Amino acid sequence: VFNGFFMSMRSKFVEPGCSIYYYVVEWDAKLPWADFRGQVLGPTDPATAPVDSLRGAILAKWKDLGLKSEPNTGDNGVHASASPFEALAERSNWLGASVKEDPFGKAMLAKGVSMKMIKAWTDDPPVSFEGKKQSLFDLLEDLDGAECLEKGAKIAQQN
Questions:
Q1: If we measure between CA atoms, which residue out of 116, 117, 137 comes closest to residue 126?
Q2: Residue at 39 is within a domain
């Protein structure tokens, strides 16, 4: 499966003259992953984002921030990984981070998910789970760390 949508989005970040600024963030476990993405960042469409979310603030001040155009669903100013596993995949794919040295990668290995499977999963393959083929990233979306590890281990057992 080839995700053409991703590649068209990716091209905006890797063409000459473009750059990506990234941060690796951690937060108190009291804030669920879904709330970090939904409330702190705001919805993918900045037009529907609360003004106190990052995407809402970027939309309100996009000209002051020097952006070329008003943020929209495709270019909304900020990205956050949809799950702890997707964060691992993005660190590995974009930054060349070692799965063996990554805290979440170590935890997955400790849960019995093989290195080969983790590496394959970083490309978001369809996986079998509960009798259906589904996107791995979709299955793990918005899960907190422990829940993501548990579900990842269950998915690994079925594949």
A1: 137
A2: yes
In a shared domain, residues 90 and 151: yes
* Domain identity same for 92 and 34: no
One domain, residues 113 and 51: no
Number of residues in the chain: 159
pLDDT(5) > 60: no
Q: What is the spatial distance between Cα 27 and Cα 108, in angstroms, rounded to a whole number?
A: 20
**Residue type for 125, please?**
P
Domain range spanning residue 119?
84-157
pLDDT in tens, 111-141: 999 999 999 999 899 999 999 999 999 999 9
Instruction: Report the domain count for the chain.
Output: 2
Going by C-alpha positions, the residue among 11, 15, 28 that lies closest to residue 145 is 28
Answer for the pair 41, 47: CB distance below 8 angstroms, yes or no. no
Question: Which ranges in the chain belong to alpha helices (H)?
Answer: 4-14, 33-35, 54-60, 84-95, 103-110, 115-121, 136-140, 145-157
